[in-house]
Amino acid sequence: MGLITEDKEIKDHIKEDLDLLSDEEALPIRQDPIIEKLLQKLPPQIADSYTDIQLQGIRVSLGDRTWGKHFIDNRGALAFPFIRWRFFYVFLLGKNRRAYTRRERHASMLMFIGLMVSFIAISLLVGIFTLYILKSALGVDLLEGTSLGVWDWFKELF
């Protein structure tokens, strides 16, 4: 049922975009910044061959491209000597504006819970280790005659 609702929302969104594009007060399609940038990248004979209706369809399919604006957008390529392949990297940082599917929301929630549990577990281990070292440095012996050997190892490091 959720998939049908999402499909209907997408179709309604496309219909709204088409209505906005066909509005008489809107900019001519060839003056739209996204279409203008697209046409500049094409050879002139190909760019001139598109009709306004085709360009409107392209504009609707591209959407508002809010996904293309990030706080940090770093892209590059790496080429190593003696290796034929080139590798590219993309580092993006910014607010996520995408609409998630049910599966993506579920995976995102599991990832968040996993990261939080890992963070808490690591924090607890570091805290316990710090308290143990502090206890040992102060000479407090909670159980007579027992030692984990951590204090001796720590003293050897420093």
Separation of the first and last Cα atoms: 63 Å
Helix share bin = 55-70%
**Class of secondary structure makeup:** mainly alpha
Alpha carbon gyration radius: 29 Å
**What is the overall shape?**
elongated
Poorly predicted runs: none
Adjacency order of strands in the biggest sheet: 1-2
Q: Count helical runs.
A: 6
Biggest β-sheet: count, sense, barrel?
Answer: 2 strands, antiparallel
Number of strands: 2
Strand content: 5-15%
| Order of helix and strand elements from N to C terminus | HHHHEEHH
Can you describe this structure?
By secondary structure, the protein is mostly helical. The protein has helices at residues 2-22, 33-41, 44-47, 52-62, 102-138, 150-157; strands spanning 72-79, 86-93. The chain has a two-stranded antiparallel ribbon with strand order 1-2. Helix 1 (2-22) crosses helix 4 (52-62). The longest helix has 37 residues, at 102-138. It is elongated, with a radius of gyration of 29 Å.
